Amino acid sequence: MGVLSVSVPDDLRFKMNKLDEVNWSAVARKAFEEKIKEIEIFKKIVSKSMLLKDDSDEISIKINKNMAKKYKDM
Fold this sequence. Notes:
By secondary structure, the protein is mainly α. 73% of the residues lie in helices and 0% in strands.
């Protein structure tokens, strides 16, 4: 399995360190997998779409904001 280093702000790292029962690698892996799925689905839709690039960029921004909110609320 490959190794990936992720930078987080100091205050977030401090909070993470307090929760030693959480497998942060698994949390990150799941987030990466979900993001990849999201992008793959988006690309599949866009490849068949008549949308302009600006339209697809706007949709992508909305998806990213919603995903960020989802993880923030967790």
